[in-house]
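General statements about sequence and structure are easier to judge against a single worked case. In the encoding step, the backbone of a single protein was reduced to a row of integers, each denoting a local shape. The record that follows shows the chain in one-letter code together with its fold in token form.
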Amino acid sequence: GGRGGDSGEDASEVDIKKIMKTIRARDLYPVIVFSFSRRACETHANDLMTGKTQLDFTTQEQKELIRQIYDNALLCMAEEDRELACVQKIYPMLERGIGIHHGGLLPIIKELVEILFGESLVKCLFATETFAMGLNMPARTCVFTEVEKFDGKEMRVLQPGEYTQMAGRAGRRGKDDRGTCILMLDKKLDKEELVHMTCGTGSALMSEFKLTYYSILNLLRRASGEEDAEYVIQRSFHQFQHTREVPRKKRELEQITAEADGIQLDMSDAKAELVRLQNAARDARTALMHHAVDPEKLSRDVLKPGRLVRVRDGDDEWGWGAVVGVRDLPAEAVPPLEPDKASEWGLESEWAKREMRNRRRAIDVLIHCAPGVHEGVLRPAKRILGRPGKLAEKGCTCEIVPVALRLVDAVGAMVLTLPRDLTDANARAQVGLAINELHHRFQGKTVPELDLENDLRLDGDEFHESMGRWSRSESELRAHPLYAASTKDGGLNEKQIELYRKKASLMERARDLKKEIKTTQLSKFRDELRDRSRVLARFGMLDEEGTVTHKGRAACEIDTADEVLVTELMFNGCFVAMDHHALVALCSMFMPVEKTNEVYPLAGAAKEALEGPVKQLREAAKAIAEAELDFGVRTQAAEGEDGRHEAVNEYVDSFKDALVGMVYDWSVGTNFDEIMRGTDMFEGTFVRAARRLDELMMELHRAARAVGSAELADSFEKGAESLRHGVVSAASLYL
């Protein structure tokens, strides 16, 4: 048990020591070293205290002062807690002027480190980025051990706002004339990414206002019910942001309408109908390819070097090209979410993060470009209508162009053999000749493509629906009397067709804007209010008239955990037969905790008391998830029964049992060190969860009182009291 772990690689140890020695030699202390994981903070701090060269930053006088402050801090703890391993382990570091600060430390240890750093007794502090939030703890120097962080889904370069928040700690007002920032890079970083990170503008502040069952129940409990709910929504920052976008959209609508009116074409004739069908087929194809080029599903083998892909950017047809490689675009090259999507999804939602990951993933494609590439003008090379093997302009070249995955219109079945050195223009030209030959050979026919179902293994109701929509659009387009003429040389006037297409696009954008202006964010909240109210009604927390019931009044008291699930367990008898130790252990499943590799054992009386209730909790959670799917509160990532099953399991699995055994043992009085030896969880994580669990138990106490269950209320109160001992209830050094 215990965290333990490796002391880090030799190269990393040497690097951090070299930097610290340089900082000391140039008198650039105090220094904050930012790392993006708790374990990295501890590893780097241990590196300075191990090996042949051990660093010490304090004088004898400072060591004595540190000892005095440390001893005084321990007086706030119970005598037996002063000997805890995590308390004793920190002192040798502090004595040398080295500190650690992250959310996994005991609260009293974090406060002690903050006090010593504020007094300039800790010269070198290893911290996570949370240290830069809120605390007024400036330093002379900031060091970044890495410039990438894991955001829950993938590793990414720091956003400008994140970097500025941390780097802004360097330089103390009134003491330093400048601050120093040092970046430790272990791999190549593009110049554009570095400039964006250090000099870019921060992300816009977007409201994350969400309706919850707790807020709905408390609003509906009032006499005016839904009117109060809408009153609150109308005056939220979220609604303010959406309303502020309306004037901009109206201005854009006026400009687009004026531009469309300036194109003097009759959009009711046969040519306009052809353009409409072409646009419909194009949009249907884009929706279909959204499934095919999903980065989470697409294998690297599909987009291997030499693979033919067809590229289209809106109305710009680039034609076929050869894949050179796959990469992520620099952050500043990725278009941000549109305001309406950002407002609807929320910037931190899974939908938004997935969309931004999709936009960032790109492929380098060797493709024909029109003249002017070397002068900074990038546009597709046009081909002679009816003779696709011939280019319409002289001076076209074959260049490597980064292409976002969303612009891939088709994936070919053929793979070209690429020259080794594509920096040579002659080598690229040879590939261009092969692509021209491909266009010539298949003129009037379809270039062989990978089958979306058999080759790319795509399936699901949503995919088949998109496939059907595209097939119907293609059939309607090919059946149009002007379609055949539009594909032949000397057929329709190409410039006139382009004007039709432009006017059709403008009119389509105008329709979308009108819809966005008409559909206010308030109407979406009304729909969500209705859907969530139906879920509450299914579980008896609202009656048919939307009035809060006896059961609903209990849920009104619960804000720290999932109010519907907790109330359902309270009323289905799950809590009644449990003693207060088992009760508080079961409720720990509502506390969010970090992922652990070592599962704390549940044995003996604890296992016997909790196996049944844990099963009941999961069954109740399953019923709630299914109700939310039925009423549209929860969405499925994939269609069909498999998608529904996955969505239900995602909700059920969010209630983890990592704390159950630990909380039970703590409740019955087991020693803190003994508990921590059975897990790799950080001490501070457990203490923080226990304190929040104390709040939940008191909320449940009030909820039970509200519905007249005095005996159950007493059990909840006893459960809360069983947590309040030792380090969990230690007083703050700031009080």
Notes: The longest strand covers residues 316-328.
